[in-house]
Protein 1
Amino acid sequence: GVNPDLASERLAASFSVELLTASLDGGAERTRMRRAVVEAIENDPVFSQENQYFQSQNERYEAAVKRAVYLQKKIREMGWSETGTEVQYIYRCLSGDIALSLHRVFMRSISVLGSDEQIAKWMPLATSYQIIGSYAQTELGHGTYLQGLETTAVFDAATQEFILNTPKISAMKWWPGDMGRSATHSVVFAQLYVHGKCYGVHPFILQIRSLQDHSPRPGVTVGDIGPKMNFQHADNGFLRLQNVRVPRENMLSKFCEVQPDGTYVRWGSQKINYFTMTSVRISVLSDEVIRPLMKACTIAIRYSVVRRQSKLKPGEQEAKILDYQTQQQKLLPQLAAAYAFHFINTYLHELFNRGYQDIQGKNFDSLPELHAFSSGFKAIVTQHCTSGVEICLRACGGHGYSLLSGLPSLYTKIIASCIYEGENTVLLLQTARFLIKCFMAASAGQPVPPSVTYLSSAKPGKCPAKNKSDFLNPEFYLKAYEQMASRLISSSAAKLQHLIQSGVEEYEAWNQCTVQLERAAKAHCHYITVKNFVETVEKLDNKAGIQKIMKHLCDLFALHGIFSNMGDFLYDGYLTTAHMDLVTASYLDLLPVIRKDAVPLVDAFDFTDKSLNSALGSYDGQVYQRLYDGARRSPTNQQGNPAYGKYLKPLLQNKLSKL
Amino acid sequence: GVNPDLASERLAASFSVELLTASLDGGAERTRMRRAVVEAIENDPVFSQENQYFQSQNERYEAAVKRAVYLQKKIREMGWSETGTEVQYIYRCLSGDIALSLHRVFMRSISVLGSDEQIAKWMPLATSYQIIGSYAQTELGHGTYLQGLETTAVFDAATQEFILNTPKISAMKWWPGDMGRSATHSVVFAQLYVHGKCYGVHPFILQIRSLQDHSPRPGVTVGDIGPKMNFQHADNGFLRLQNVRVPRENMLSKFCEVQPDGTYVRWGSQKINYFTMTSVRISVLSDEVIRPLMKACTIAIRYSVVRRQSKLKPGEQEAKILDYQTQQQKLLPQLAAAYAFHFINTYLHELFNRGYQDIQGKNFDSLPELHAFSSGFKAIVTQHCTSGVEICLRACGGHGYSLLSGLPSLYTKIIASCIYEGENTVLLLQTARFLIKCFMAASAGQPVPPSVTYLSSAKPGKCPAKNKSDFLNPEFYLKAYEQMASRLISSSAAKLQHLIQSGVEEYEAWNQCTVQLERAAKAHCHYITVKNFVETVEKLDNKAGIQKIMKHLCDLFALHGIFSNMGDFLYDGYLTTAHMDLVTASYLDLLPVIRKDAVPLVDAFDFTDKSLNSALGSYDGQVYQRLYDGARRSPTNQQGNPAYGKYLKPLLQNKLSKL
């Protein structure tokens, strides 16, 4: 049965959970279909993640490979498409705990960067799993800065081959997924040399393991990079190459080619490469970043109405911890952020799809904006969601620290998103560079993309708000965000110009402004997130109370942002300290309002118990029983205790220790 | 050999690393002695932590028990004292990766709470390890709120025994260290009932396992609570009791007793119980909280001068990442905080020792201040250090995410310190309660402890600073902190009073102020930390440039605090936006100054490579070679790949998949 404290929360919902779920999902039909697919997968024991928290790295890897292979079989049996909705739903319910995901990136890179002949040769082999691919770009010594890669590919005209080498230890490929123990082939990035001249980084298809017995090919040293904070299921690998030869035809050559005599030919635009990165950054957000925050909120909020601790009112029963203002202040802003980021994700996908259409029409104008947005939002969403998951974990006290709560794994996994697909600081500075350019253009009266026109229109002013309810008017808080972002960008630009004019070299001036530029880029993305939330709420159906509760969440997200970054807003002059008191009061007033709907708001995320995999977060709220059941299943209680016989018994019965 | 990029940093030191180490250690003699002890332990293979990152929970536990038992033997052989300096050094170098640490808490609780007869009976048994003890307070359903514990102890006058029970699942003991698999005895806290009347929570000595074969005693269900985010070496346990009887003499009875006829007698002060908690909170900071931050700084800063990435100046070699302003802004404030907290730790120990002397003279006046300070500083130091370690981890990019870097383990362990020994929010609100009381007393002209006299003396004013160098004057920034803390406390008090006067019940008014009260308590502790740093620097010897570099760190710590909490300072009115520009400029100017000495400043923490256990942080800076060596030693490369034969081979050679 459901814990009565949790059940009573659901009875009090001010809106229809079903309708909200459908609205988040893109319709009730999709929800229904997703549930059917998820149920089929979750009932299959191969896909069970029940013992995940007890497994070693080797066990996790083996289970992930088993799942990947079994899923291929299932996809063939069911006639699903590899990129279809069903497979998407399955990935959602497996939470990425599956091997061979880099095989898809291997295929994507061949289809994007390969010539027609290369596609015709390699894609059928990959699609039918006669080979398993990986994607080897990052090296021990180089990540985000691709130009610095040190692996070399020297053209040997005599044999019509490239000779690949790892000239020093820092040039070893390091981190590629599926490479450590699984892949037979890889797309390897290396500096191309022809007749002694370097042509920069190019991709080569390389066989790394035998198709007979899986042993490394001659000249290849390959293995797993060892233990990580999470991703135990993935065999991230290293690769060392000593005079490994590949035929001339193995350099991916949609955009450039080395001809038999060594002539280097380049054609087509290189810009499209950015587009692939942009697409990966956007696609990662929903599954790997926003959904984990939604899960963490679900776990922490359900637990916080089951857990009772200490007395709020003397003489009464102990209070649900969610009734404490401090607990609300921890969790409810994370809940609001999960919704805010879900909506910004939709916004980014629309922006991306429009850009993609333009590109198909050979119009590359939207690429800079798309690149700047995907970089900046990847950075702020991963950062916010990572810190949100940590807050949820800590808000569950000691039990949040048990792996059985599900929270530690969410945290140790999501924190990687701040690093992979571009380190966040580097990305934010790319966004900042775009913003500074737009600001300069706007100042010179030149046209800029619609998303940044506010840079020229924002004028200093004073907020007209007179009482705390005025701050529930989006016009007032949006204006505050706009002013603040615009001021941070313009003042960074001014500092930059000032330094350059006073004789500091441009690269050094840029470096001296980066702390402020990073802040400005964050402020811009924060502003756009609030703006998009406001616009989303306006467009929502007002049926069944959904618009109303979403408006509360939007207000909370906006006001929490002001409350937490008071300095940036006060500095601006648009808001005074008297306004800050109103913002604070209005923000704190919202907490108990949203608290009433907190459980229905996480129920609407519609996670199954199996995908949450949490003793604290299950739908029935039987947290203590589930913790106990989990403990009893742990290997620490399943085997005897060899330490007793070996060390404790002799100690307890040591003659020296006798009285 | 040492990596030349790292070696060159050391040549440029502006101060003597040896002298700074000695000054942090309490003298060169102590440093010398510590090094000798640490070396002896580290060279003993039993104490090697080399394979820690590859071990399962069971393996970690077994190794930790082995170490604990072996250490006992060593202590006896060497004739060391269990509480002596040598043993302290050994614990420092083992980083807590050792079992039976709760045995000490078991003994401490008997010696503090037990009668003379109880001490005479139990202490020799414990000291000679004829029994192994644990300390069972926390339950599944109750942590910080001790009054809510549900385990019962009912007095049976007929048999002169207490009958202990776990009446429901939430009453099960949960988390006690060493209980899951090791302990034979435990101090168990339970609600005492005599003749149907409840007398509140009392401690009982209970045997939980047989001394013959270690099996659970009748009525006892005991085991390990399963996987955790870290602390795999510790067998945190659960304990379920069904009509377990202990003799009347087993209730610890220094302060109260149940007499044979059931008469309950209490004598002595209960306040001394707080003192034990205070002592634990303070003692945990140095080893479990500040030192991990120092280690994380050592790892991240050494790595940041070895790692070169991207070009700062076109045409030049790639730059050391520590030369980027954004990297300095991440790491150097953490370094300054590590020093700030090292010094506040000394301050707290002095406060504690003075309080202890008072108490021995039966003067309990300093208890409230001590309790408030130990609570507040426990909270802010654990919070700052946890977030500092996370920043260091992320600042190392992908390699920071490898367990081999040492950073993930530091993080997953230190985050527990925000929860154990009192949840931070609960603790900060206790500090706030003390501050509000002091504020009210001061307002009424009553005397208050010296540390909070500023609450009555702070008067609104304007900062007289005119240029950025003025903010290197501690007088100016201290005044800003003082005003800010004082204003946050007085305005929380005003809100509280206003609510109560307008008819809100006191408990509800308190709840409605807790977000602001928590902020006020943090501000107070932050102010005291800055003040103590300033005073420490003033007292430092100016020999060999130490005072100068410490002054820089102190300035950085103070200005970073203002830069990061701009809102609280601007709100106050003491600093204007023009001042904020000066603070920002002064703060950013300090970064490159401290950056020059960053490596010597972490070298001075004087960690051995073995205790850092980090491929990125070793003294020689051979990061890539060490990552590679670590990967090769990983179990993922030591055994074959059963997943190949079972799943990949059939997939690759599947007839269905043939073209």
Protein 2
Amino acid sequence: MSEYLPGLAGVPATKSNISAIDGEKGLLAYRGYPLEELAANSSFEEVTLLLLDGELPTANELKDFDEQLRSNRAVKYNIRELMKSLPITGHPMEMLQTAVASLGMFYPASECLTDGASCEDLQYVHNMTVKIIARMATIVAMWKHIRNGYDPIPPRDDLTYAENFLYMWTGKEPDPLLARILDVCLILHAEHTINASTFAVLVTASTLASPYSVIASAIGTLSGPLHGGANQKVVEMLHEIGEPENVEAYIDARLANKEVIWGMGHREYKTKDPRAPILQSLMMDLMEARGGKMSKLFEVAQVVEEVCEDRLANKGVYANVDFYSGVLYSEMGIPTDQFTTIFAVARSAGWLAHWREQLSDNRIFRPTQVYTGESNRSYIPIDKR
Amino acid sequence: MSEYLPGLAGVPATKSNISAIDGEKGLLAYRGYPLEELAANSSFEEVTLLLLDGELPTANELKDFDEQLRSNRAVKYNIRELMKSLPITGHPMEMLQTAVASLGMFYPASECLTDGASCEDLQYVHNMTVKIIARMATIVAMWKHIRNGYDPIPPRDDLTYAENFLYMWTGKEPDPLLARILDVCLILHAEHTINASTFAVLVTASTLASPYSVIASAIGTLSGPLHGGANQKVVEMLHEIGEPENVEAYIDARLANKEVIWGMGHREYKTKDPRAPILQSLMMDLMEARGGKMSKLFEVAQVVEEVCEDRLANKGVYANVDFYSGVLYSEMGIPTDQFTTIFAVARSAGWLAHWREQLSDNRIFRPTQVYTGESNRSYIPIDKR
């Protein structure tokens, strides 16, 4: 038996050709393309197709895929009714896990629940993927309105994925710069090798469970505070700090107490998180477009970044993708506790690429255990204990 | 980096003291107690507490636990409304994943969604466990009635777990022998080391996700046709055979075509599945109690077993736990496609024991990958592809 490594750290659990991280150099690439190039030139729709198929699509392939996404944005009204029956006090990630699990009943993947033969059918896998990626954004945006007691804003099919997503939150014509920023945020969060939620995809998929069950499992895994949710913590921290002049004292107190500074450092990167400078630059664009008139949150974030750069850069700790994405989502009017649901929408692209890859060479996950318990005990009647 | 083993076969993924299998000898023990002794002497309530705490409870401990289970059987009427909004054509396992995911919103585990400190609080873990195990049976039995258009039968608190479960399906005073058989079925399915769904528990739990999200993830994993669902296949096969005189030709044709005989053999046991003879003996008790007047399904099952014993015993292939449990559930009036939901109810005991064990020494799962994809590609504008 191989050595026991807690959390399977360093243990290869799959062969994959979807993405790669070079933590020493601070590089992340999807299908071999550096993330910086994709963020600068591509769209979430194109990146999704790249993740799924392995190649940049032709213009026609992208057009077809985009049309499929657009025509699958709407969800049945019974899903709206189901969402209305959920307590508004619940966490949006619990809502999302519930709603996605229910999709399998509303839009059956019944082929996958029988002998699994059709699971190898690429067209089937492609269709399921489109339906899930298209509808998750709708469900997430619907929840903002439903939990406030309003009817959700139906999706539009004349907008890009990011534009429509932004539109469904606000009901207003999407601001082009904010839509572009959201598009880039979705690209940056779409995939990140084998983390806990993507690993949950592989484990659940390996029993040939339906893709809805697979994504619901991944959403549950992402909901844990050790995985998703860091950008929510960043914004909560910025609100707690309150004013730019409070930053230094706050950060130094946390450092002295060895407390986490949310949004700083990343276990995978020994140097800068390659996604952070991309968002930092978009944050600057947004500030410029607004003539320097930014929200208090934005101002506090800038000072936090400066102070942390001063205190932590010599230890190789820099702002990560979560630091900026939370601030940017706040500027879009998205409630703090829904940030992780946007992460899930973006990551659904990577999860479904891994679902497809798992099916292409499937073996059910059944690791073993180091048994440390009792042996050879005999039952004792309850009156003799 | 360690060697890549597909499905992590033989790779230790956890230290555990909950259960152990000796596949060569055909032994299964929970906390060191052989399953045969527990099935003969114990109850599902006691076995659940044994799995959770590691020791057989005193009479007072068991009484307290049983009272907690009894008082948590009811579910809020909004959960019933949510279930009514689900399509009756969906698979019951999809319903169960949806409903359990929603429980986190109805009965918040909010402590677990913040910094996780209270996750180490044993009382909190114990309370969540009771609530989930008590309510899952209610939800599963409710679905039988809701999907037929009837109001569900509310649980009773004057019955044991198995008696009440049976009562909620039929609305009749539970037959003592059938209740005992169901109790034993629950004991036999409560735990089975690190299979795919239990592994999903560990992965999802490792991010400190709420126990509802953890169990929803496990249910999704169990729903796949390579994992749960074998006893459903057994009964479908028996119905397909139809008459005792068809058995020989049917089995021989399947063997000649190298097709699976559902309910025969088990990958973990080189000899007999230790759970099978226990259920076989209960099947005989039931036949005797009915003066030999059994259903057609029961008669066909007996002949299938004889024919398979003749053809396969020399290869070490015997009837497994799924072969008998499906036949017995059919005798209880439980619909075939709900068998896997009963498996999930029983296994919730083991899943929650593993949840607790994972929290006691947690490390987030983040295995690595063997990267087999492209590197160093450059983005090509769409008109140049």
Protein 3
Amino acid sequence: MKTLILTLLALNLTSSYADEGMWLMNDFPSSKVEKRYGTKIDQKWLDHARLSSVRLAQGCSGSFISPQGLIMTNHHCAHECIEQLSTSGKDFVAQGFQAKTLEDEVKCPELEINQLVKITDVTETMNRATQGLTGKPYSDALKATTAKTEKECATNSETFRCDVVTLFNGGKYNLYEYKRYQDVRLVFAPEFAAAFFGGDPDNFNFPRYDIDLSLIRVYENGAPLKSENYFKWSKSGAKPGEPTFVTGHPGRTARLLTMAQLETRRDLTLMSVIALYSELRGVLTEFSNRGAEQKRIANDHLFGIENSLKAIKGKFQALSDKTFFESKRRDENVLIQKIKSNPKWNKEYGSAWSEIEKAEKEYRNIFTALTWLENNHDFDTKLFGIAKNLVRAAAEFEKPNEQRLKEYTESKIPELKQSLLSTAPIYDELEIAMLTFYFTKFRENLKADHPLVKKIFAKKSPRDLAKSLVNDTELKKIDVREALFKGGLKAIRESKDPFIQFALSMDADSRAIRKKYEDEIESVTKKNAEKIAKARFLALGTDTYPDATFTLRISYGSVEGYKENGKKINPVTTLAGAFERHTGYEPFALPASWLENKSKLNLSTPFNFATSNDIIGGNSGSPVVNSAGEIVGLVFDGNIQSLGGDYGFDPTVNRAVAVHSEGMLEALDKIYGAKRIVNEIK
Amino acid sequence: MKTLILTLLALNLTSSYADEGMWLMNDFPSSKVEKRYGTKIDQKWLDHARLSSVRLAQGCSGSFISPQGLIMTNHHCAHECIEQLSTSGKDFVAQGFQAKTLEDEVKCPELEINQLVKITDVTETMNRATQGLTGKPYSDALKATTAKTEKECATNSETFRCDVVTLFNGGKYNLYEYKRYQDVRLVFAPEFAAAFFGGDPDNFNFPRYDIDLSLIRVYENGAPLKSENYFKWSKSGAKPGEPTFVTGHPGRTARLLTMAQLETRRDLTLMSVIALYSELRGVLTEFSNRGAEQKRIANDHLFGIENSLKAIKGKFQALSDKTFFESKRRDENVLIQKIKSNPKWNKEYGSAWSEIEKAEKEYRNIFTALTWLENNHDFDTKLFGIAKNLVRAAAEFEKPNEQRLKEYTESKIPELKQSLLSTAPIYDELEIAMLTFYFTKFRENLKADHPLVKKIFAKKSPRDLAKSLVNDTELKKIDVREALFKGGLKAIRESKDPFIQFALSMDADSRAIRKKYEDEIESVTKKNAEKIAKARFLALGTDTYPDATFTLRISYGSVEGYKENGKKINPVTTLAGAFERHTGYEPFALPASWLENKSKLNLSTPFNFATSNDIIGGNSGSPVVNSAGEIVGLVFDGNIQSLGGDYGFDPTVNRAVAVHSEGMLEALDKIYGAKRIVNEIK
């Protein structure tokens, strides 16, 4: 606690000197960076970096590192794939994976790679469509124009993907055009014990000693993609003080939210998720204790929950810091006063904050219903997700593209199909455990007297219901899913599958609360956030960056340590440190490959390092490149102080944590004997 | 959320008309109550009520209801005993318990009953001892005088217990003298399914349909106690609108805390407990899913955790309500201004608030260390608790009484012996699960680099350590514990028992952080809270009640409904309602005894009811009596709106929830055929 509180105080005092910002690829503060670091970053550099960077659609970043479509990302970004390719007999998570030849590379059932090939400003189109509208009509127009614009852009949605991206909470709209790749194969992954050495106790901490690396390859028409743009590997890696650039896809930040919105998080939503995930963590931990196979199949879920939980606790701590919170309030008041002092601005934008505050009150009232009837709808299970998507898709596909729920518009169909027809294994025991948990929470949160709860649990306990759904459904068979998907509404209505019927029984209530939220709350929030964004441009200028939106950004910084509890933290660790931290007991147990090959290693090789780049969840797998645009590292974490980054960046202690390029090469070469890969990279 | 937020707004506007207050038995607002309800409550009435009321030392309330020492309390207050008396073959929790004859009544291994026989004001003694002192000397003097006063009072601590009670956070000190009874036997308990019908989903809700009743009997010299003071059973029970009085032992309230202290709760401590208990809840839930026996042995723990968790979430919600929180701040500012406006008062008391604020800052800094090194020290397990107590007692008993840690002073020895030499079963599997959980949290919270963490986990994972401690210890044998207890420091030092050695290895760090807390933080907080209490008496008068301290209080109110989401809630339910709510699936499954005997019941008999009495955790098991001092009910819960009662009482919706006297009799008679008991009560 102490550190976080102390450091956040410094926030607003120093931000003008900070390496702050998740900048747009087409709006980078080159002159500011040149002044600070003496490095010229021109648009050609940026365009090359853009095309060399990729997004893992399921929630991570990565980069091309060879002309044959080889992509570097984190182990934890490919973790789900590695688990899906494993069986009880062959556990690639525990043992690692290495394709000795091209033919040994195996397809990941659910990975999708996006490469950003074009950015178009569509602010005017969007503004024109919504001009003069508020409430539901505003929201409908926004959705329809988004769907239309995306469809017109991606004429072939199998290979292209187009997203209308809302920047500055609506201050700008850009159309992002991506190449879409769904044939992605696993090339290399170290053992989980080495990738996530230190486990949850060390997560979000520094110093670190992790090789959180996986290599995957994009295929096109059955052959490795010829990737013209890729980052070359640096000959020496990054040294302390050297400028570093991180391209990647930060997921979400909330630095531009109003105080009313931040208060809702602090007072309601964060606590609710902390309680939920903590309990689920307990369930999954004890589930894993049942045996080795249960541990294997729950590993990815448990890792994800623990990682999210730690991040969310960090957010809560940041918002619970009184001094920090009040500094945000002062900033907001400054902006409001500027707007109020100009009658024209005031007339146009003055009411935006109070409108959002009113909408937030309404949001608090429906929060529980919205969460449990709609937002947690797939209950973190494969089967419920499939059932819901089949039921919803059938109904949505009957509608014109512009009127569909946004996840069923034409441009979203390839991802939908990928997940519905995935060959990934489904584990009954885990599905039952997850459903039992979520059903119980469903009842707890909506209360026993809610009509839907009464209906669902009138004849079965949560656990009995979970068991019968999982045991009796046919949705585990891909051909059954395919038939239902192709069969449309008629097939769904005629289906006797208990899971389809269950999903149908929830759908009306689920849609109703979502509609209420979108029409009455989200529409107000979006409209007024757009107003605030415009007001901010007018009052404070446009020399800034938008909140993160899981779209490509670039941040600048340098290899830099920091102080914690008065102690100086060195920015670079070495391979030797990993062996010093090894106790032989999970999660501080290096795998056999490391222990056996220790003598071959140059133990003074840099292993992990910290930089002052401004990153957040979603940046996992981002390349760290030097001024020459060469790979010097691989972002895999932030330190504990970076967790407040959701709401503000503190340059004195907020650090990105990366695997060093030299450490990766040394391990690939000497520990894993991955000559083929090393040669390809070099 | 909605309800809680709305209702708390009303708080300060109406409190002067409220049935608010957990009043002292020797300072009851009789004239106010007479004015409001036309009921004369004189000191004789109060003295009889005091002697008829009892405390369950482990954390509940109860009352004598016959001249043969029969005590009425909640099922959930005797739950642990019922579980301890059960075996895998004979599960009294699931099946219920009834002693058909006196000889069938079975001793509870860990129950202690306290009857408050005398109250003496020792404010002057305490004030004299601490006069002019601050910091550690103040705190030492307070502790020494407490230990001395208690020892002098309880010359025979086996049968008498004396506690110095701090009232108004130090505004007054009273010496409470109790008769102490440790021979307490189980007489009757219904099935858990009936006692806790509706389970966690219905907990803290109303309407309710629970027979949360157990009957126990105090024995003296091997025979039933002749209890001269007891509550008679009402002939008709309470009707809507009728005045009701609740005597009992509310555990803790925080209505007099300063804003700095409340902020620490809102920002830090409550969330920390919510996360911990949520995760433990998940662990225990999944542990219970392993099988029937695991479910049985974890039941009491899980129930306790779920109950606490719901209560703590309610507290967090109350403190997160901005309007409520700011109203508390206004109240504090009014008091501070009054003190500041009087130079003499200001000199004496003016700095108290800022002194506490400074201490709170320091408290936040050591919160994690204090929690994990000392406060969670027994990790909710039997074995670690025993090991710790043996290790500590041996060291403390070497010191003079006045210098001991407070839980090892002479007056506390009987409880200590009771728990150390308890015959209650210890379940290895549950102990291992709990220790694994807490060891993991211990490492997570103190971090992997903490020297003690490094030392403890250098050679074992949390789970391996838990297993080896539990499997290898001899502390499961009562004679081993007794020998170590009697053997003192020498025996402890020579012990090879791994759990004793483990407890020893933690003791130095554990004592150090506690010492830091007591000497540098608690001493400041206590001293200044005492000042604020005196300032409050001067500025606002003494016509008030102190925060709850798990000592006997009386509250007044009436049988009264309330409004929730605009809907009127009737204050009384009937037996018919239980059958209507029955689905046959846990936790909405009435036991066979109810279903089989349904036809014998008068279904319109009142079952549960709500009253406006001001209660809180610790009041569980409290009798509800009418103006004539007759039993009309048994408090077992509060509604969800009562959870904010920790910080303030809202008369419009804060309700105590009780089992109706008529419902209890009807069930005892017609369902359980408990003629012997019914005759004794009647």
